[in-house]
């Protein structure tokens, strides 16, 4: 087996990785549907965005709680900084998503204006940064022979 190097990255549970995949996909899909609404003016795209954002908030909240517990457990380890950055990026994505959910609860004309699109972009960028930071340097594991 190949030994994992670089102990400064957080060690995540595979279930946590699955939970994090949902906000990444849902926030990104909400951004795409906001852009589709701005291009077509079909109100259903705004509805899709609202539903996708709520789904991202649910799964992002569970992943965020798990990440906070992980931060507490890793507080006295070398992974503290990496886990802290991951938790902050995930929290910022969730906060932008929450504000965006309230913005999308308005009618379609006012929900996906400059503020709604900006919040969608920010929540997507923050959750992508969280996912990248958490899993881009995952330990390399060899296959047992």
UniProtKB/TrEMBL annotation:
Pfam families cross-referenced by the UniProt entry: DUF2231 (PF09990)
Transmembrane segments: 15-38, 50-75, 81-102, 114-135
Record's keyword annotation contains Magnesium: no
Domain (DUF2231) ranges: 13-133
Keyword terms: Membrane, Transmembrane, Transmembrane helix
InterPro entries registered for this protein in UniProt: DUF2231_TM
Protein's UniProt name: Putative membrane protein
Organism of derivation: Brevundimonas aurantiaca
